Each structure stands twice: as C-alpha cells, then as structure tokens.
Amino acid sequence: MARNGAFPRRRASEGADWLDLCQANVEEAHVLAVDDSLVDRKVIERLLKISSFKVTAVDSGLRALQFLGLDGKKSPIDFHSLKVDLIITDYCMPGMTGYELLKRIKGSSALREIPVVVMSSENVVARIDRCLEEGAEDFIVKPVKLSDVRRLKDYMVRGCQPNSGGKNHQKRKQLHGSATSSSSPLPSVSSSRSRSPLVDTPAAPCSPSSLESPTRRLRMTSCE
Amino acid sequence: MDVAQLKRQLIAFTELLYREGFLDEQFNQLQQLQDENNPNFVAEVVTLFFEDAERILNELANNLDQQSVDFKKVDAHVHQLKGSSSSIGAQRIQRVCIIFRTVCNEKNVEGCLKCLQQLKHEYALMKSKLETLFNLEQQILAAGGPPSI
C-alpha cells in the first residue's frame, strides 16, 4: 500500500534543512487538473493527493481559465491564495481542447511560467511535438500511473525554467521513443507500459491534423 | 469460511480476472491508491465507471437507432468509453472499443450494432465479476481480515 502521503509530512516538521524545504515546497504544491471524464478526474485527483499535492480538478478548459482568472471576468478571489504550481490537462476534450488551453496559458504573461503537462490516450508523435512546441513540459500517455505523477515533482522541486517552446529536444527524443510515427518502423521500448495493438483513427471531438496518419501501435511488454 | 480461505479465494479470483483479460495492470495501480484513509477508492471509481458506461451504452443505442446515423457522435461516445475503461484497467471493454472505432470510421452500421452488442455483453460480464470481487473483499473485512491483498 502506498505510504507516500505519510512520509513528507513527518519530514516537514523535523527542521529546515534544504531537503526538507524542497519536500515542503512540493508538499504544498497546488496542481490544477483538467479532464472532462469523471472517472479520469477521480483517478488523477487521487494520484496527485497520494503524491502529496493539493489538487483542484475541473472538467473543462473554460473552467480552468475561469479558475486561473483568465476568462476576462474580474474575480474577487485573491489569486495568490489559489496559486497554481502546475497544470495537468487532458488533450481531447469537447469545446476547448487541452492544446488550446495550453496555448492560452502560454500566451498569457500572468500564467506562462506555470508548467503544463498534457495527458492523452493517443500516443502520436505529431501530437506530442505540437504540445512540446507550444511549451508543454511533458506529455503523459493515459492511463496515468503513479510513476507519471511522481515525475511531476521534477518540474517544481528543481525550480527549472518552464519549457519556453520548441527547445525541449531531450524531452522530445525521449517521448518519440515510445510513440508511434508513420515513418519509423519500430518504436524502441523505452517506456514500461503494455499497450494493445491499436489502429489510430481520428477522434471526432478533437480531430487530429493531416500529420497524424493512422498508424499501428505495436504491443510493448511491461517491464514492471 | 475463515479469513485465510477467503483471501485465497480472492487471490485466485483476481488472478483469473487478469488471466482472462478482464483486468490489466491499471487495476493494480488503482489498488495501490487505496489505503486506510481511502478504503473504498477502487469501489468508488468502479462505480463511477459503471454509471458512465451505462449512460454511454444507452446513448450509443440511441445514436445507432437513428435513420441517419451520426458517426461522429458514435465515435465520440466510444472514445469516451475507451478512455474510462482504460483508466480502470477494464481491458476487454477497452479492446472492443478499439474495434468499434475502426468499424465506426468505416461508417458500417451493421458492424457498429454488432460492436454495441459485444460491448453490452462485456460490460455485463465485467460488472458481475467486479461485484464478486468486491463481495469477497467485504467478506474478508467482515471476518476481520485486512481489506485488500
């Protein structure tokens, strides 16, 4: 059983050496999760809480923007008390897609510093590239696991500069390794996931661009 | 039946579900998120999934009953169900969804109806198996044993 929730809290009370401060920062980190699926929201919320994040989960890009104060309406709420340290959003959502939300956030001087991570059930190179180019820190293939969420701390503890768009070559190489592409013959098994063979067909609510040709995803055996 | 026997039953039954493809690794992930502070997490998520799935199956039946089928809507619903079944580890349901989307893409109404039947069948099976699983867990709890494997 996961004990992640218990450990950081004990550390925070034991004094203030550097590691404790880092843990304390991560402990208080507030994540805004955006997903239109109720099931997925419940899972991501739990994954985040068990990893010691504070969570606000909303069901649409529009609500995310409202929460972030970007909807143009004056909000009486003090923004600082609702400070968001990371945004994790589903890609495929009706209305505003996760990609559109990403663009809005990175296009805002007030919010562009907030790291954004995109989740998607479709593991396609063009989609990953598009998100990274727009400034996403990472691209998580659903279903989201604990190990994915634990990685999120990297975007906050080190205080690294958020991806300023197009320069995340390392990350792109890493993600390409496990993604499908019509041009590459065999994806390398760099991620420990099992996936059933899939013919990637365009999804109605978020139709991919002409770059995302249907590809067959190969079964990758789990290393766990 | 004593706790040890019940636990053996639970383990054997769970292993069977994994072997027969009803569950995959993601279900195990969910179980790891359950602890004494959230003792019903898995059951809660699964319940949400059941409600969601039933709603979608009804919508699909409606969509496919139309004179002129809106395949975009059908695909959108199947995409949703594929997502949520993947999130809880309902592998067999997820797989039917994948086939369903291909058939939908071909605008094949007959094929879609067959897939819907298959989905309903798999859903009913899944529901019954998970209910048995939760039942066993409840029995173990009642007999004084720890809640999960």
From TrEMBL, chain A:
The modification 4-aspartylphosphate is found at residue 90. It comes from the Eukaryota. Gene3D superfamilies: 3.40.50.2300. PROSITE patterns: RESPONSE_REGULATORY. Residues 30-157 form the Response regulatory domain. The keyword Transcription regulation applies. Keywords: Nucleus, Phosphoprotein, Transcription, Transcription regulation, Two-component regulatory system. SUPFAM superfamilies: CheY-like. GO terms for biological process: cytokinin-activated signaling pathway; phosphorelay signal transduction system. Residues 158-224 are annotated as: Disordered. Residues 181-199 have a biased composition (Low complexity). This is Response regulatory domain-containing protein.
Automatic annotation (TrEMBL), chain B:
Gene3D superfamilies: HPT domain. Keywords: Acetylation, Cytokinin signaling pathway, Cytoplasm, Nucleus, Phosphoprotein, Two-component regulatory system. GO terms for biological process: cytokinin-activated signaling pathway; phosphorelay signal transduction system. The modification Phosphohistidine is found at residue 79. This is Histidine-containing phosphotransfer protein. One of its GO terms (cellular component) is nucleus. GO terms for molecular function: histidine phosphotransfer kinase activity; protein histidine kinase binding. It comes from the Eukaryota. Histidine-containing phosphotransfer domain (HPt) contains an active histidine that mediates the phosphotransfer. SUPFAM superfamilies: Histidine-containing phosphotransfer domain, HPT domain. It is found in: Cytoplasm, Cytosol; Nucleus. Functions as a two-component phosphorelay mediators between cytokinin sensor histidine kinases and response regulators (B-type ARRs). Plays an important role in propagating cytokinin signal transduction. The keyword NAD does not apply. The keyword Transcription does not apply. Its main location: cytoplasm. Residues 38-143 form the HPt domain. PANTHER family: PHOSPHORELAY INTERMEDIATE PROTEIN YPD1 (PTHR28242:SF52).
